[in-house]
User: Fold this.
Amino acid sequence: MKIFRAPTCAGILLFSACLLNASEVQKHGLSFEHWVADTFFEGYRPKEMTQKWDIPAQYNKLHGGVPVNPKATKFGTAVGMGDALRQYDVDEPFLLIVGFWKQDGDRKVFVQSLTAHITPEKWRELWGAVTRADIESLDRTVKDKSLSIPDARREALKIKSLPPFSDAVIQVNPKIDHAQRRLQCSIPYKRLFEALAPDADSGEMKQAAVFGKPIPAVEESGARKFRDK
Assistant:
């Protein structure tokens, strides 16, 4: 007979803290996206979380008239791009704006940035020899419920570690656990600069900027707000 044990107060607090931390991480990224939208793209806010572009082309009046994908991530780490199949299917030019932050006391300060206008041809180049069929096959492996979680992870990571995936700039990232079975993708920090800004210094800067405007810091305590240095 299975005995149900109510969660302890400590367990509840730990679970709540995990949710809060996840929410906080999302919040600072959202704060950067809002700053980008408010400063350059008419203050646009996405209508749906699953829409194709964070900022549609019609709101980009001053910087090429293409859709915009703003991202915030920790300095030196890969930039998460989302679902691998959806990203592979991108077939129009877009603007990628990334802010890289470091922790500074009770705030996050932006110490590097990258803004790149990416054409469909360049985007395809970042995938190298990877085909849609390759991604579909790996996606099926990730979502194959006949495989246990450890076996699915092992098989997916084996496939990822071999060509054509290992040779591409964009890297696939299997997410396999009790809550999810997804195939996402990202661009490693070093490869991002090598491919999209080869002449730029990828090291830490005193003040990162987007289109010449300094990115303000993000407050950690209470409601996140930007604070200019």
Q: What stands out?
A: The longest strand covers residues 107-118.
